Amino acid sequence: MDTEAESRLSDQTIWLIAVRDQRDRASFVRLFEFYAPRLRSMLARSNCTGAAADDIIQDAMLKVWHKAEQFDPGRATASAWVYRIARNCHIDVIRRTSRPIPEALKVEEPPDHDAASQITLNQEAQKLRQALDSLSADQREVIVQAYMGDLSHSEISDNTGLPLGTIKSRIRLALEKLRHEMKDLRSQ
Questions:
Q1: Fewer Cβ in 10 A, N or C end of the chain?
Q2: 100 exposed, middle or buried (CB, 10 Å; 0-12, 13-18, 19+)?
Q3: CA distance 25 to 102
Q4: Measured distance CA(128)–CA(137) in Å, rounded
């Protein structure tokens, strides 16, 4: 690249080219320091804040480091390229965090209001309460927050201070136990 062309490039593009061509860590630090607050603002406009935003920024900038060799200043500016990566990371997180309703808690059709269905509904509710009571306190807490409090895994992690992986493991194990406890209801 000639000196005249380089003089027209933004500092961010020059830093990204240095990361691409020389794996320059100092340039990457500059990129991170420049884009992290801007990405946080972009994510905040989409109602993504706190630890969830931090995770997306970390993931996006890690991808910038790993995919730097794909950057072509002739096709896009550094800003456009970094923002596109961050937007795609945000979309991936949204897709991953859509939580399915556990099978044991799905309602197939609206309940009838006759006496027999009310008794059945009460029995099912009692069975669910017993199944929830059979969970450990840690598992019950995350299930209640996730499915009754409608919180995302990241939000539960923020509330409890536990790592995201621990939250996901507890939810998975609790759902398995609930499915096992409620299996006789599904066969009726």
A1: C
A2: exposed
A3: 45
A4: 15
* Distance of alpha carbon 176 from alpha carbon 144, whole angstroms: 15
Domain that holds residue 109: 103-186
The count of residues in the chain is 188
Q: Looking at 58, 73, 97, which one is the last position of a domain?
A: 97
Q: Cα–Cα distances in Å, from 59 out to 46, 63, 67?
A: 17, 6, 12
Q: In terms of Cα–Cα distance, which of 111, 148, 100, 113 is closest to 128?
A: 148
Model pLDDT for residues 80-115, shown as the tens digit of each residue: 999 999 999 999 888 887 766 666 656 666 655 677
Pair (83, 24) in one structural domain: yes
Q: How many domains does the chain have?
A: 2
Which residues have CB under 8 Å from 107's CB, separation 6+? Answer: none
